[in-house]
Amino acid sequence: MNTVLPTTIPAYLAQLRKSLEGADAAMIQDALYDAEEYLRAELAANPGKTEAQVIADVAGSYGAPEEVADIYRDTEVTVQTALRPPRPVKKADAEPSLLQKIFGVFIDSRTYGALFYMLLSLATGIFYFTWTVTGAGLSLGLSILIIGLPFIVLFVGATRVLALVEGRLVEVMLGERMPRRPLYSDAELPLLKRIWSMFTDARTWGTFLYFLLMLPLGIAYFTIAVTGLSTSLALMFGPLVSLFNDNVMVINLSGEDIVSNEPWLIPIVMLGGLAVLLLTMHVARLIGRMHGLIAKNLLVKS
Amino acid sequence: MEDDPLLRKFQKELSAGTVSLALLAVVADAPAPMYGYQIAKSLEGLGGGVLAGKQSALYPVLRNLEAAGLLESFIEPSDSGPPRRYYRATVTGRATLARWAEAWRATRDSVDHVLKGNFE
Questions:
Q1: % of chain A at pLDDT higher than 90
Q2: What pLDDT is recorded for position A90?
Q3: Which one of A83, A180, A184, A189 would you mutate to disrupt binding with B, by most B Cβ within 10 Å of its Cβ?
Q4: pLDDT at A1 over 50
Q5: Domain span at A38
Q6: Which residue would you say has higher pLDDT here, B4 or A158?
Q7: A53 and A145 co-located in one domain
Q8: Which of A151, A152, A170, B1 has the fewest CB atoms below 10 angstroms from its CB?
Q9: Inter-chain CB proximity B63 and A40 less than 8 Å
Q10: Does residue A44 belong to the interface with chain B, where contact is any CB pair within 8 Å?
Q11: For chain A, how many structural domains are there in total?
Q12: Do residues A68 and A137 share a domain?
């Protein structure tokens, strides 16, 4: 692929974006941010040169857009595998056994990340929802006043920063690659155009939708996590505690304490608890994966 | 530009660790925090080898060093463009650098030794 070298920074970035088409959206956002920082720094360091000259130089040192795209595709994979602690080696027969599939969930770090995220999501969900509804309400209400416009702009801008923060949470806890740098905005454009581009960006509206969705989702996640964990732990350890403590009773359907009346049920109840715990862990991991996709689609994909 | 695929593959494999080492060393030695462009420029003109590659390859490495806790970063606005991200080495980063440098020197010495044909 050999195209003409662009002559302006926005054109360079557009070409880079095009070359990275189909790559991970979060990686594209980071790549554009890095490239812009480098280009603008180079431009500032060589005040005598035109933008086209600077870009010609940069093609040699930093790389032409296509080269940069290739490098990002490569480096992202290589460096992550080089710096991250190695994953446990998979056996030659890659397909995990049924037992591994069922119990592997306990040693998968994503399960615990997802569980933690589910517990946290009640708080973040309430915050995001309140933020969005309050901000939108105030924006509408104030729009008849002179301070209405700056308020709307401030609110939308802050929301986009919040989306980046939520992305970091999602990447750390759910393992979905999310942007690590803010969205690229063209510094060349006049301020009004840049503000306008915030409103025409699908990601802004996706973020609002995501924030609103986070309330019902957060409530559901929290409820699932708390119910699953407390039910399973109570079933697993309740019978043991009730052996020594008369105040704790494990009651079966007919209202009798199984420890004193039907001791043979104890192991069955405990196994049932383990089953509920397993189910909860699997559900948590699945929710983690699904929520990662939701976040990616609403917050990052344009 | 050499387009020897075997050489390119070798350079790619060689650079995976060495670039991380070089970047960590540059940032750790600097008297003040540095941003991406400065770091890239300080490696420029050091001669050939994997460090002479395209500088766009450095940014993802910086990010990953930060994710691994070896560097820390903060953002400061600049008048020439987007806010710049400045990097400085963490305590872990400095300790790691010492160990990496040791591993590097040992490897370099033994590889040189082998290349000179001394197998005794």
A1: 29
A2: 46
A3: A83
A4: no
A5: 9-83
A6: A158
A7: no
A8: B1
A9: no
A10: yes
A11: 2
A12: no
Instruction: Please name the residue of chain B whose CA is at the shortest distance from the CA of residue A180.
Output: B63
Three-class DSSP category at B84 = strand
Q: Is the ipTM of this complex over 0.90?
A: no
| Binding-site residues on chain B for chain A (CB distance < 8 A) | 12, 16-17, 20, 35-38, 40, 44, 54-57, 59-61, 63-65, 67-68, 78, 80-82, 84-85
Nearest to A288 by CA among A47, A114, A161, A95: A114
Q: Is residue B120 in some structural domain?
A: no
Reported as a single tens digit per residue, the pLDDT across A164-195 is 899 989 988 888 888 777 776 666 677 788 78
Domain span including residue B65: 5-115
* Same-domain pairing of A126 and A223: yes
Q: Is residue A3 part of a domain?
A: no
Is pLDDT larger for residue A107 or for residue A139? A139
Residues 162 through 221 of chain A touching chain B, CB cutoff 8 Å? 180-181, 184-185, 187
A83 CB within 8 Å of a chain B CB: yes
Q: Is position B85 within any domain?
A: yes
Number of structural domains (chain B) is 1
Residue of A252, B39, A204 lying closest to A196 (CA atoms) = A204
**Which of A169, A227, A215, A208 is closest to A298 using CA atoms?**
A208
Looking up tokens 């304490």 gives A257
Report the C-alpha gap between A116 and A111 in whole angstroms: 9
A74-104: pLDDT as tens digits: 776 655 555 555 444 444 455 677 777 788 8
Same domain flag for A284 and A222: yes
Q: Are A40 and B80 in contact (CB under 8 A)?
A: yes
Kindly report the CATH number assigned to the domain that includes residue B104.
1.10.10.10
CA distance A148 to A155: 10
Size of interface A-B (CB pairs under 8 A): 93
Q: How confident is the model at residue A143 (pLDDT cuts 50, 70, 90)?
A: confident
